[in-house]
Amino acid sequence: MNKEFTFAVKRTRFDEDYCPSEATRLTTNFANLARGTGRQENLRDTLKMIDNRFNALAHWDNPQSDRYSVAIDIISVEMDINGESAGNGLPLIEILKTSIVDRKTNECIEGIAGNSFSSYVRDYDFSVVLPDHKKDGSDFSLPDNFGDLHGKLFKAFLNSDAYKANFSKLPVICLSVSTSKTYQRTNNQHPVLGVEYVQDDYSLTDEYFRKMGMEVRYFMPANCKAPFAFYFFGDLLNDYTNLELISTISTMDTFQKIYRPEIYNANAEAGKLYRPRLTNRDYSPTRIIYDREERSRLAVQQGKFAQEHFIKPYQATLAQWVADGAL
């Protein structure tokens, strides 16, 4: 069955001239920033924030804090079943790939694949399947096999020739911590990732990423206001270089300051015990325009789109594939 699934990788540079394609998921942070009358200023300011954050963290041999610049590619992944496009050009998964430009040595250093994570099937699970399940009064349970298809699709992509041809290391995803959990600061501190936090219970997102085969740890880098959830394979602290990790931190810290300023641009730093709150009013908004309400609305639309153009047409094939067991 695995031989019937093939993947194609497409790259789009995220820069101040970026325009979202008609096929891209419009709920992605980068697509939202690139629309409207102030789109180019939005993009220019976002990229400057990423570079400034990178240089602040990579401060050694960098006296003027201008040695490095981060280049970002949007990676769109399409899947074919039996040689047919599963979604008529629909990007099944979208991630980001960073590269680091060292102006001192004129090198382009490979960064990390992953960073942000977007998926039509994830929209389907969280915006269609889960709400429908809760309508039946099942607020304290999950639908049967919730996330199984998505997890196996992701693992299949990582095992594919397309992934291996484009990326040398497994991905790291960096997301916001959950507003439903409390995090406790530990004494463990990494020179780049910062101080580690732990919690007693996984969030729904944590469990969803576990089905994708990824572990999670929570770190708050220097001069961040809250910890991040880092999803990874293997050994997060030793499998990646300092510059690779900084490229992820600088990119995702910037996006989260724009998208969730109540948490990541708060005026007070997370304490020993921390519960993220989107109701926090003590924060500083960025100058960058972001339409969070549109993002939530489009998640539902795109979940239904995935249902109509991917889940329903290939339902029997996908169900059998998941039932065949792990990759």
Describe the protein's architecture and organization:
With 327 residues, the chain is an alpha+beta fold. It is built from ten helices and eleven strands. It has helices spanning 29-33, 39-57, 120-135, 148-158, 161-166, 204-211, 242-259, 261-264, 292-311, 315-323; strands at residues 5-14, 68-81, 84-85, 93-102, 107-119, 172-176, 183-190, 194-198, 215-220, 228-232, 273-274. Strands 1, 2, 3, 4, 5, 6, 7, 8, 9, 10 and 11 form an eleven-stranded mixed β-sheet that branches. A hairpin with a 4-residue loop joins strand 4 (93-102) and strand 5 (107-119). The termini are close together. The relative contact order is 0.16.
> What does the largest sheet look like?
11 strands, mixed
Oligomer: single chain
Number of H/I helices: 10
Question: Which percent bin holds the helix content?
Answer: 25-40%
Keywords:
11-stranded mixed sheet, 11 strands, 35% helix
Secondary-structure blueprint of this entry?
Elements: E1 5-14, H1 29-33, H2 39-57, E2 68-81, E3 84-85, E4 93-102, E5 107-119, H3 120-135, H4 148-158, H5 161-166, E6 172-176, E7 183-190, E8 194-198, H6 204-211, E9 215-220, E10 228-232, H7 242-259, H8 261-264, E11 273-274, H9 292-311, H10 315-323
Parallel strand pairs: 5-6
Antiparallel strand pairs: 1-2, 2-3, 2-4, 4-5, 6-10, 7-8, 7-11, 8-9, 9-10
Helix pairs in contact: 2-7, 3-9, 4-6
